[in-house]
Amino acid sequence: MEIKPSNLQETLTQAENEHWLDCPNCGWGLRLASIILDAIFIYLILHGIDRLFLAITLHEATLKLQNYSFFISLFELFFKASFLFLYLVFSVVFWGGTLGKLLLGIRIVDARDGSNLTVSTVAVRLVWVFVTHIVSIGIGFYRPDRRAFHDVLTNSVVKKVRGRA
Amino acid sequence: MILLVPTTPEVPRFHRPTWGGSFVVALMLVFCYFQFLPVLEADQDYIDYLQVLKDEGLMEDPTLELAYLAKRPLLNVSISPKTWGLEKGIFSNFLHGGFLHLFLNVIGVVAGVRICTAFIPFLCTFSIFLLGGTFGLWFSTFINIHSSGDYVPHLGASAGVFALMGTYYVYNFRFRTSYFFWFPSKHGTISLKTSWFFFLDVILLELLLSTAQLLPQSFDGVDHIAHVGGFFAGVILALLLRTAQRWPSVLQTRGEFLYWNNFLGPKLKEAQYDPIQASYTGWIELLKINFFNDQLKSKLANHLSAHIKSFSGEQIKLAFRYFGPTFTRLFSKDVAELIRSLLKNGSSIPEDWLKRTPYDIVIRLAQTLAKSKQDQLLVLELILSYQKAQKSNERLRQKLNLLIEKVQKMQPSRPQASGE
Fold this sequence. Notes:
The complex is a heterodimer. By secondary structure, chain A is mostly helical. In chain A, about 65% of the residues lie in helices and about 5% in strands. Chain A starts with 7 loop residues before the first helix and ends in a 5-residue tail after the last strand. Chain A has a two-stranded antiparallel sheet. The longest helix of chain A has about 30 residues, at about 30-60. By secondary structure, chain B is mostly helical. Chain B is built from 19 helices and three strands. In chain B, a hairpin with an 8-residue loop joins strand 2 and strand 3 (about 190-195). The longest helix of chain B has 22 residues, at about 120-145. Chain B is elongated. The N and C termini of chain B lie far apart (about 60 Å). Chains A and B meet through helix 1 and helix 2 of A and helix 8, helix 17 and helix 19 of B.
């Protein structure tokens, strides 16, 4: 059932979402490029966090932190998990895609109304991506609409919203 | 930096930097490496022999060990914390500890010299490489606080490479850099804002690793402190150079700066000086040279908004030719403000600009206008103008008809729709 907008901003947002649905589905070349780009960004940040905590761990004696090893490990895990959540879930929910996808002009939207996905949908989608990635991509390769298995399961679609020179 | 390689500042093809200077410096590094390879090999033999003596128990006295380390061959041509000299400091930029060290620094030098020559002449670039590199190496020896490293040679071009990165960071700070990320197709390049991304890719990790280098155990044999020192030396030298040149902050490339300095500035001064028209003329002339310069476009849009009554329809149409979809998307506030000024002044938005602007960008502009209650009527005017410009696109006109109906229901008063 279509939700009727109550003000001008909602009307315009609905028009934008409908436009995303009209955009062509993203091809596999561009999706692969976005995955590589995301992997690079994630690696840069995680590597930095890793090195920082490795330095702290190696020099616990100098920094007088011997009694806090467990908490240091916990902090490290917390920082990494927070970053991954912000990058892989938060950005998709609020901006329609990860940094790599947005830079390459693609968005992940709800296949029914073109709106951004919810936190739970993105999280479930991610789980399916990791669990089924090879099968998922294989199925998507043969589908005419190029939707991977995790897209079909979560009612999402990856759209190419901007042309690139 | 090796994963995301900065290839060029985002500039038109004829402003892109050339390779000549890069290859000159790269050849110098290669030449010096092979010329001093015997010294490097002699040093390696010397250290191996000292290690053998140590293993046999003949070098138990630390003072004796340090005395022998002070005589290692490489210290005749390069610096260490205890053996510093200006000549050796400069020369250390051209020495490398092995072929891999040389190879990685040659890649860095080729990239660094190339991207800097989009802004400054080759001699300035080379001077910054030498001065920044020497400072970085000196800084690293100065900061070194562990006596076990007193006679470890500090060498390599990487401090100089980071000095060039610092220079590039200053000159291209407000603009974008094109990166290549090893994807073998047209999708393998992206443009990213230099101010935040270049910092993240190039220097942030070095800052973290240099902090770790201060602690007793080191991770790797890389002199991160020299990299950081070189980078900040490059930043300071670039800021000094820009101040001496009086480089306007909205200009990106050397071509624009030379044109501004040698032709445009004097030409505008000669003519009867009307500051409003002079600014417009100047920015349009510069955009003809570098149509990628978003800072100029933003200034132009703001200038037009502020003095909309001073410009003719033709002048506004000419300015809009430079507001492409990417600029409008990134600077939607400025363009929305200009559209607001145009519509409130009773002028029309140039039709050819509306024709080539994508639908989602017009929606974004409408969303910006709709934030203010008094401008909500202008939203309908914008959409009507857009519909009028899309005469040949029937599908889009149908979408716009539906949108217009919905927007009209939200309006307090309803102006006539197109065709009524």
